[in-house]
Structure formats: structure tokens, C-alpha cells
Amino acid sequence: MSKENSEQDGAVAAEQDAPRADSAAATDETAIEATTESGQTLAQELSSGVDAQAGDATGSEAPRRGRRAEKVGVVASDKMTKTVVVRVDRLVKHPKYRRYVRRTSKFMAHNDLEATTGDKVRIVETRPLSARKRWRVVEIIQKAEK
């Protein structure tokens, strides 16, 4: 009797699975028809906005790039050609004394805007331009008083 029950259960399970298989086949057929109408496969449609090389994007992909790091600082030196040293100050809470301490970092930045010593500038991160230069001056916020 247990054999009969297991056979009946198997038949019922097969009947229940059959409509699911038919609906899955139907969705697959519609998907195949959709891809044959456009003449492209799904992978080709998804990759249509991206060029063959990694990182190259067409016009629709370009605005999605992540925001680049920006810092505001004061030009400490402009003695190099097309390069300035920008001093960026930040306040950090001391771990033991709980007071704010000023920390200073210096960044070498490409200078197309002719910023001079004492100017307050905005710099953004960019590709490596030389061994130590990875920033670019994008705006002179305030000119130095002479």
C-alpha cells in the first residue's frame, strides 16, 4: 500500500510541476522571441553601452562615474612650473585629551589657473600626473592679499 501511495504522490507532484514547466517554457519562448526580434542577445543588449575595453563608457555611462575627492586648502608654494603645494588643515579630536588638534597635509597639485602663494584653492583628485602629483587645482576660491 505504501508503494501505491508513493506512486500516487509522484503522479500528483508531476501534475503540479507540469504547469510550472509549461509556464517556464512559455516565458523562455517569449524571451527568445524578444531577442530574435531585436537581433541581439540579452548579453549584447546589456553591454551595448560599454566599449570592449574595461573602463571605457559611451555617453550614457559617463555621468555615472563616482564623485572625485575634493579638498580646500591654501597654496604653500608655487616655485615649480605648473605645480603648487597645497596645505590642507583639518581638526582631529585627540584620543586622550579630547581636545581638537590641527593636522596638516600637503598635496602637490597641477596648476593651470596660475594660483600663487597664499591663495585659497579647491583641488580634486585625478590620475597620476607625475611621481608625487595626483591632484589638480579646479578653482581659486580667494586670492591672497598682497
Summarize the structure in words.
- The protein has 146 residues and is of the alpha+beta class.
- It folds into two domains: 2-62; 67-142, OB fold (Dihydrolipoamide Acetyltransferase, E2P), CATH 2.40.50.
- Helix content is 29%, strand content 34%.
- It has two helices and five strands, in the order ααβββββ.
- Strand 1 (70-80) and strand 2 (83-93) form a beta hairpin.
- The longest helix has 37 residues, at 2-38.
- It starts with a helix and ends with a strand.
- The model has no long low-confidence stretch (mean pLDDT 77).
Outline the secondary-structure elements:
Elements (H helix, E strand, L loop, with lengths): L1 H37 L3 H5 L23 E11 L2 E11 L6 E11 L9 E6 L7 E10 L4
Question: Could you provide a short overview of the structure?
Answer:
By secondary structure, the chain is of the alpha+beta class.
Low-pLDDT segments, ≥5 res: none
Per CATH, the architecture of the largest domain is Beta Barrel
Radius of gyration, in angstroms, nearest whole number: 32 Å
The helix/strand class is alpha+beta
Q: Tally of extended strands?
A: 5
- From the N-terminal CA to the C-terminal CA, the straight-line distance is 104 Å
Annotated CATH homologous superfamily of the largest domain: Nucleic acid-binding proteins
Query: What is the average per-residue confidence, as pLDDT, rounded to a whole number?
Result: 77
Question: Major sheet, described briefly?
Answer: 5 strands, mixed, barrel
Question: Can you list the strand order of the major beta sheet?
Answer: 1-2-3-5-4
